[in-house]
Design brief:
This protein has five domains: 103 residues, Arc Repressor Mutant, subunit A; 194 residues, Orthogonal Bundle (Tex N-terminal region-like); 141 residues, 2-Layer Sandwich (Nucleotidyltransferase, domain 5), CATH 3.30.420.140; 102 residues, Orthogonal Bundle (DNA polymerase, domain 1); 109 residues, OB fold (Dihydrolipoamide Acetyltransferase, E2P) (Beta Barrel), CATH 2.40.50.140. The protein has 29 helices and 17 strands. It is globular, with a radius of gyration of 33 Å. The C terminus is likely disordered.
């Protein structure tokens, strides 16, 4: 992009320098990804972060599309023979899409309109005369047209369209709707006989300029479900007055014949009512919807980021249990790398002793270090059963290490189990077993497992089905890619779905890497990636730094140091009298490196500091250390929840109106934003994040509606504050597939321990 004006505009919008925008745009055009640019090209763009680079990418796309649209419009008007130098200058100098369309409005191909009909009847000369201040009496001829009620009506139709086509007029009306209109919602007729979640909007109004995004989306949902009638209300007189000011913008025009002004006034009123108000209301509501969508998408994206970056248990053998009552609990065992070892089904509610024996045998035989219990229906009961079984096992066999028991979110597990990815991973296993495996692996490494699931199925957003799906999908994919590359990926164990999120890797390349690994064994170096079919120099440049190989001959292959800087590290090691292997992980030696000695073209302090940090802690995981949630053993269902209880919970979802918290009873509780802090809070995300642990107080329980109100205040008010829905149903767990009995090979033998 060579347009200096556009570069300057983007720079101002993002808050960076024009040279930085130019550098980022050049790197993007060369095929570099946002994570690669942010991590490995800091000197080129001045150390911008991923967020800034992403904004530049979005604005470059916007202005590129705008320039392409300008070319189309200029060509269209030129072909009509109506392109003047003045009009060309206005179009070329326009940088807002809505304004550009306003300029094009008079020249757009139109369907048959009232103005066209009037022109066909020969009334245009009369319209021109009125526009220019010439008005005859009824029965007289003006410019060859007899003045009559019919001809005046036709002339006004022409003038109304002419007024509506003035870019400044259309802009003024749109601005009035955007700044002064009120959103009004009313219940449809006949009024629903049953209660709905939209009752608070049956008689509602709020300025469109200030209505919060979540409230606007709630109203739009009510409209979509045919419960509400929604429209914008705007006082028209001031708007029409402003329209007339624009039309009569010279002193001479203001002194027209009063009869001409009267006709123009009537035409302006008609233009507003018939041509401008309906279209401008649509424009403004569409823009408000997109603004609300963007806000909702940002909330979803932020929640997803924290969920993906949740603390991993790490490489520990995990026994996973997907709870069930009628069909039993599905059990699957994974080794420390996540490899599936076997399965069975237990019935703790019906056959407790047999279930105890099975769990005890598996724990002992496979040395399980953790037991992951899904938090769906019967999750807490199953968790209690497991804890009791382990207590009994420890009493009778104290030599057996007892694993920790962790409640794990099931959201999206059923979606994964029925997916093409799951079928490829486990073609011979039933859906039920795949779901259990997903729960166990999610405990080991949330990021590696959750990338296999459509982010929209994880259930951490608000109004996710109401917002623009392309916008949502693009943003969520951006977050997943950012998280994957921020953490790094172990090349020799990563699945294809995880690899395809790595910078520079397409799904085809990810699959090719897995196939090469299956055919040739583990990668021993990053350099071997070049042997993968289709993985060329550009893809290698983009992906290599984000892939890790633990135990590689070159220890830098397990770090975030890019292969293009290996020679530099070798020089650093030689300068301190060490081999590379002795320098990597040697914090004492690494911290003594004087990075100023190695500054060179394209290599500045930011890159050098990153390299030294990697030498100190090579391949470090940026995620927090795992700590299991602590739920009360005596609170396992909503019937156990009482007002005034003090509980520990885990934040599962943050919305614009509050935060949902898992307190271990299957139904999340809501902390309304008014209950999040002792101090005023306008943005819940500024106080809590998904995955945070909180001490909460129960301030209200509505068992009929399955709602729990919570408070994080030091002195909460008990009595149901915050029980409103907030216009969302995010507190409900994602729906689960009812799992059938386990089938297939690979099951455990349920031989019990002696004397258990």
């Amino acid at each position: 992009m060579e347009n200096a004006n556009i570069l300057a505009r983007i720079a101002a919008e993002v808050g960076v320098g024009a040279h930085q925008v130019s550098a980022v745009e050049k790197l993007l055009s060369e095929g570099s990804t946002v994570p690669f640019i942010a991590r490995y090209r800091k000197e080129a763009h001045g150390n911008l972060d991923e967020v800034q680079i992403g904004k530049i990418q979005d604005r470059v796309k916007y202005y590129t599309e705008l320039e392409e649209r300008k070319e189309t419009i200029l060509k269209s008007i030129d072909e009509q023979g109506k392109l003047t130098d003045e009009l060309r200058a206005k179009i070329v100098g326009c940088f807002v899409k809505s304004r550009l369309e306003d300029l094009y409005q008079p020249y757009k191909p139109k369907r048959r309109t009232r103005a066209q009909v009037a022109k066909e009847k020969g009334y245009e000369p009369l319209a021109d005369a009125i526009w220019e201040g010439e008005m005859g009496e009824v029965g007289e001829k003006v410019r060859g047209v007899e003045v009559s009620d019919e001809s005046l009506a036709g002339a006004r139709d022409i003038l109304a369209e002419r007024i509506a086509d003035i870019a400044d007029v259309r802009g003024a009306v749109r601005q009035a709707f955007a700044t002064r209109a009120k959103v009004k919602s009313e219940v449809v007729s006949p009024k629903p006989t049953e209660p709905t979640k939209f009752e608070q909007y049956y008689e509602f109004e709020e300025p469109i300029a200030t209505i919060p995004s979540h409230r606007y989306l709630a109203i739009r949902r009510g409209q979509a479900e045919k419960v509400l009638w929604v429209h914008l209300e705007l006082e028209k007189e001031p708007v029409i007055e402003r329209m007339m000011e624009i039309v009569l913008n010279t002193e001479a025009q203001r002194h027209r014949d009063e009869r001409c002004l009267s006709q123009i006034q009537l035409a302006a009123e008609d233009a507003y009512k018939r041509l401008l108000a309906p279209s401008c209301e649509i424009d403004v509501t569409v823009e408000k919807k997109m603004e609300s969508d963007r806000a909702a998408v940002e909330v979803f994206a932020e929640n997803l980021r924290h969920l993906l970056l949740a603390s991993p248990l790490g490489e520990k053998a995990v026994l996973a249990i997907d709870p069930g009552i009628r069909t039993g609990c599905k059990v699957a065992m994974m080794d420390a790398t996540g490899k599936y070892l076997g399965k069975t089904v237990i019935f703790p509610m019906q056959k407790q002793l047999e279930a105890e024996k099975a769990v005890a045998m598996i724990v002992a035989k496979y040395h399980a270090e953790a037991i992951a219990v899904g938090n769906g229906t019967a999750g807490r009961e199953t968790e209690a059963f497991v804890r009791a079984t382990l207590k009994k096992l420890h009493a009778q066999h104290p030599e057996i290490p007892i694993p920790i028991v962790v409640s794990v979110s099931e959201a999206g597990a059923s979606v994964y189990s029925a997916s093409e990815i799951a079928r490829k991973e486990f073609p011979d296993l039933d859906l039920t077993v795949r779901g259990a495996i997903s729960i166990g692996r999610r405990l080991q490494d949330p990021l590696a497992e959750l990338v296999k699931i459509d982010p929209k199925a994880i259930g951490v957003g608000q109004y996710q089905h109401d917002v623009n799906q392309d916008l949502l999908g693009g943003k969520l994919n951006e977050v997943v890619v950012s998280c994957v590359n921020g953490v790094g990926v172990e090349l020799n164990t990563a699945s294809a779905p995880l690899l395809e999120r790595v910078s520079g890797l397409t799904p085809a390349l990810a699959q090719a890497i897995v196939e090469w690994r299956d055919a040739n064994g583990k990668f021993e170096s990053r350099e071997q990636l070049k042997k993968v079919k289709g993985l060329g120099p550009k893809a290698f440049e983009q992906c290599a730094g984000f892939l890790r190989i633990r135990g590689a001959k070159n220890p830098l292959d397990a770090s975030a140091v890019h292969p293009e800087r290996y020679a530099l590290v070798e020089k650093m090691a030689a300068d301190v009298g060490l081999g590379v292997g002795d320098l990597v992980g040697n914090s004492l030696a690494a911290n003594k490196i004087d990075i100023r000695k190695y500054i060179a073209p394209g290599i500045g302090e930011p890159t050098l500091r990153d390299i030294v940090n990697e030498l100190v802690k090579p391949g470090r995981d940026p995620r927090k250390t795992f700590e299991p949630p602590k739920f009360r053993d005596d609170v396992t269902k909503i019937e156990d929840v009482k007002e005034g209880m003090k509980l520990e919970g885990v934040v599962t979802n943050v919305t614009a109106f509050g935060a949902f918290v898992d307190i271990g009873v299957h139904q999340d509780g809501l902390i309304h934003l008014s209950e999040l802090s002792d101090n005023y809070v306008s943005d819940p995300a500024s106080v809590v994040k998904a995955g945070d642990r909180l001490q909460v107080t129960v301030i209200g329980v509505d068992r009929a509606r399955q709602r729990i109100a919570l408070s994080a205040k030091s002195k909460p008010t008990i009595g149901g504050t915050g029980m409103g829905s907030g216009g969302a149903s995010a507190g409900r767990r994602a729906p689960r597939t009812t799992f059938g009995p386990s089938s297939g090979n690979g099951g455990f033998s349920c031989n019990p321990f002696a004397n258990l």
